[in-house]
Amino acid sequence: MRARRFNSEILITYLIKILGYSAIIFVGLIFYFLISEGFPAIREVSFSEFLKVRWYPIEDYYGILPLLVGSIIVTVGALIIAVPIGLLTAIYIAEIASPTTKEVLKPLVELLGGFPSVVLGFLGLLILSQYLREILALPTGLSALTGALILAGIAIPAIVSISEDALDTVPQSYRDASLALGATEWETIWMVTLPAARSGVLTAIMLGIGRAIGETMVVLMVTGNAPMMPEGLATFINPTRTMTATIAAEMGEVANGSTHYHVLFFIGIILFLIALVVNVTASTFVFRRKKRSERILS
Amino acid sequence: MSTRKSPQRRKRTQQIGFFMLRMVAIIAVLPIIAIMAYIVYQGASALSWEFITGYPSDGMRSGGIWPAIVGTFFLTMLCAIVVTPLGIGAAIYLSEYAPDNRWTQSIRIAIINLAGIPSVVYGLFGLGLFVIFLNFGISILAGALTLAIMTLPVIITTTEEALRAVPQSFRVVSTSVGATQWQTIRRIVLPQALPGILTGVILGLERAAGETAPILFTAAVFFLPRLPSSILDPTMALPYHLYVISTQVPGMEPQIQYGTALVLLIFVLGLNLLATVIRSRARARRQW
C-alpha cells in the first residue's frame, strides 16, 4: 500500500516535471518548423534577391525590404503616439488619481487590451479610414497612419498596465523623502518616482513594441496592403504592407512546398527573431531590477 | 534645479502638469467607452433570434451567424481541454518543484518568448506541424491545438501566481502531519488557488476566442453550409467571419457587420467579466 503510494508519487512528479519543461519544448518546436519550412527559401531565392525593393511573388520578385520597412514604419508611428499617452496615463493612475478613479480606470484600460484586434480593424476600416480620407484628402484612407493609430490603441493598454505596476512598486519612502526635502509632488514624479521605476517602464515600452510589430489583423485590414518603399514624409499617409499582413494575406493561396510558401515561412523566422530580441531585452530589464533590489536588501 | 524658481511658480507648474495628465488619461480612456457604446448602438438592432441561430445566405449578405458562433465555441472549448492540464501542470512545477537554477531560468525565458511570438507566426507553426506534418488538415483540432500553445504562457503565468499566493504555512502544516508533497498540492494548495487558476484559464480563453491570425490557415473557412460534425472538420469562426464580411464581401449590410462584431465582443468581454467576478468573489471570501 505504502509502496504503491510512493510509486504514483514518483510518477506524478515526473509528469509534472515534463509539463514544466513544455514551454521550452514548444519554443524549440516552433523554431524547428519555421527553420525547416523557411530555410529552403535561401536556396531557391538568392540572398541578394531578398534585399531588393520589389515584392511581387507572382513574377518571382521576393524583395522583403519593403515589408520590413512597412513593419518598422507602422510600429514607429504607433509608438510615437502610444508611449507618451500610455506613460502619462500610467503616471496619472499611479500617482494622482484617487483610489476610486484608479479602481475604474485600470480595468477599463485593460478591457481595451482584451478587445479582439479584428474588431478594432473593422472599426478602423469603417470609421477611422473614412475620417482620415476626408481630413487629409487621401484617395482611400487606408494608410500607414491609419494602421499606426489603431496599433497605438493596442499598445497603450500594455504600456499603461505594466508601467503602472512599475510605478506602484516604487517604495512610498522614496516619495516621502523627496517631499520632505521640499520638492513638489510634480517634481517628485519626474525626478524620483519615474527614474526609480525606469526598468519597469522600459519593459512596458519593449512589450508595446512587441505588440505593435506582431499585430496582424489590424494592419492587414487598414494599411492598404501595398508593398512600397518610403518616399519622404508622405510615407505615413501612403498605403503600406507589413510582414505580418503579407503572411496572413498570401499564405492561404500558395501551394505547399512552393518557393512562395518557403519565403513566407522565412518572413516568419524574421518575425520570430525580432520577437525574441524584444522579449529577451524586456525581461533582462526586469531581471536586472530584481538583482538590484536583492543587492540592496542583502 | 528648480530651487531658483519661486514657490508660486513651482506650485503653478504642478497645477498645469496635473491638469495635462488628467487630460491625457481622458484621451486614453474615452475612445474605449466610445467604441463599446458605438458597437452596442449599431449592432443591437441586428441582434435577433434569426441572426443568432440562422445560417448565412445570399453570399453572407443576409441571414445569421450560427455556424460561426458554434465554431468559435468548439475551438475555445477544445483549446481549454488541451491547455488547462498542460498549463496547470507546468505552473505546479514552477511554483512547487523547480529549483532556483539555470534550467528554471530558461523555462521562464521560454515562457516570456512564447507570450511574445506574433499570433500569425503561431498560425505558420500550426500549419507546418498540425495541418501538414501530422496531417490533421484544416480542422478544429489543428486550430484548437495552435490556440492552446498560444494561450499556454498566459495560463502558466497566472496559475503560478495563484499557487504562490497560497501561504507557505499551509504546505508546512500539511507535510508535517504526514502528507506527501503531491498530496499537499492536490488537497491543500490547488483547492486554495482554484479561483486564481480559473481566472487565469478564462483570461487565456478570452484571448483564444478573439484571435484570428492563428486560425487563418489552420481551422477557419469562408463558408460552411452545415455545422462541423467532428473535430477533424474545418469550421467557421466569429473573428474570421468578421474579417471576411468586412474585407472580402462587397456590398455588405453594415448592420450585419456590427451585429457580428457585437456578438464577438459579448463572447470575449463576457469571459472577461466572468474572470473578474470569480476573482473579486474569491478575494472577498479568502480567509488568509
Provide a descriptive summary of the structure in words.
Chain A has 298 residues and is mainly α. Helices cover 77% and strands 1% of the residues of chain A. Chain A has a single domain, classed as Orthogonal Bundle (MetI-like fold). Chain A has helices at 2-20, 22-38, 40-44, 47-50, 65-96, 99-113, 117-136, 144-168, 172-180, 185-196, 198-214, 217-222, 243-250, 259-297; strands at 55-56, 61-62. In chain A, strands 1-2 form a two-stranded antiparallel ribbon. In chain A, α6 (99-113) crosses α8 and α9 packs antiparallel against α10 (185-196). Chain A is globular, with a radius of gyration of 24 Å. Chain B is mainly alpha-helical and 288 residues long. Chain B has a single domain, classed as MetI-like fold (Orthogonal Bundle), CATH 1.10.3720. In chain B, α3 (66-97) runs antiparallel to α8 and α8 packs antiparallel against α11. Chain B starts with 6 loop residues before the first helix and ends with a helix. The chains are: A mainly alpha (298), B mainly alpha (288). Chains A and B meet through α1, α2, α5, α6 and α7 of A and α1, α3, α4, α5 and α6 of B.
